[in-house]
Write a structure and sequence with these properties.
238 residues; alpha+beta; five-stranded mixed β-barrel; two-stranded antiparallel ribbon; C3orf33-like; acetylation; TNase-like domain-containing protein
């Protein structure tokens, strides 16, 4: 029994000596674990932060084209006004809610030049408090250039950027915020051009061709003879 106690004491003494000799290493390991914990916490805080302005969103989120979730409040000619819905994590979220400010993000359909009819269509399609996903592609001042996705059913979603173009309610334009020589830029631009082409082939929206009778009527109404005739009729009535 005495020998066992002696061996245990000797082992503990050696462990203590090793720790003293490698104190800087032990401290470094402890500091490393602490830093790693802080990095994880900081990442969690960023993911759970409610963004109320485009300027609040970290540049890294935009560069990595992160997808965010939000709730649509209204649709205007400037874009979608969206309330960001952050990831919810127990304790962290409850603490953040005490100091988070209120505000809406201005989200625009990247690569799309909307017509007034397109704005009306979005106002009709997006119900109040509609939840959407918006993928960050670029940021211009206080507006975010995004791909906007709406869930349709449990396993499918619709890209509003493409859907608007398929309906002929806008024109495909350059995607602001992405490098023009990047693979993502050309992949998305091709998708938008295909959607626009479908509207063009089906004569939908702005691509709708006038009928023969409509063209004749427009030409007659704009002809010099018809303008003279209208002035003559107005003179007779006066």
């Amino acid at each position: 029994m005495a020998e066992r106690r002696s061996a245990a004491a000797e082992g503990l003494s050696r462990l203590s000596e090793w720790a003293d000799a490698h104190l800087s290493l032990v401290r470094s390991l402890s500091a490393g674990v602490a830093v790693a914990g802080l990095l994880v916490l900081a990442r969690s805080v960023r993911l759970t932060t409610k963004f109320t302005s485009a300027l609040d969103i970290p540049a890294g989120f935009v560069e990595k084209n992160v997808k965010l979730r939000g709730k649509v409040h209204r649709v205007t000619e400037k874009g979608l006004e969206v309330e960001h819905i952050p990831i919810s994590i127990p304790f962290i979220t409850s603490v953040q809610r005490r100091w988070q400010s209120e505000g809406l993000l201005l989200v625009r359909l990247a690569g799309v030049e909307l017509t007034p009819e397109g704005t009306v269509w979005l106002q009709r399609e997006l119900k109040p408090s509609q939840v959407i996903w918006f993928q960050l592609l670029g940021r211009e001042h206080l507006a975010l250039e995004c791909l906007v996705l709406v869930n349709k059913g449990r396993f499918s979603s619709v890209c509003l950027n493409e859907e608007v173009l398929r309906e002929g309610l806008g024109r495909a334009v350059s995607i602001e915020g992405l490098q023009h020589d990047s693979h993502l830029f050309w992949e998305l631009h091709k998708r938008l051009l295909r959607a626009e082409l479908k509207a063009l082939r089906k004569n939908k929206g702005i691509w709708k061709e006038e009928s023969f009778s409509e063209r004749i009527r427009d030409r007659m109404s704009n002809s010099k003879f018809m303008r003279t005739l209208k002035r003559f009729v107005s003179w007779l009535r006066s």
